[in-house]
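WP5 quarterly update. Target: PilZ domain-containing protein. Source organism: Adhaeretor mobilis. Length: 139 aa.
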Amino acid sequence: MRLSSQSRLDSLSLTMIAAKSLDVLAGRTQSLTSEATLLLERVREFLRSKSAGCDEPFTLRAQIIPLDPHGMPGEPSEIELRDFSERGLAFTHDAPITDRRARLSVDDPRFGKLNAEVDLSWCRYQPGGRYTSGGRFVR
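Structure tokens (predicted):
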């Protein structure tokens, strides 16, 4: 089947729009990865400075705000980060989170700020009535 000149132009336009959208998304992902990497480096430096003979527990607290399927925010709650990398995180919290997406906010004077949207992919009930959840950064 041969495409008309207009069909080829339309197809080319759609391809260019899709490529531009991917570039914008890649830029946002790169920015988030950079923010997460910077926060992670600050935490690592803090832990290295404390490691010489210090057994003091270390907790990084944050706030999580569930987002409904339309992106509307729910009630914020305090969480404790357990695992954290450039790609995602795991955290403990007091009540189940029913939504799959959430907004994470870390604001610690020792390490700086990180605001990101998270795709929550798992949740486990822990003995003692707490939960551990995790997912990957999406924005």
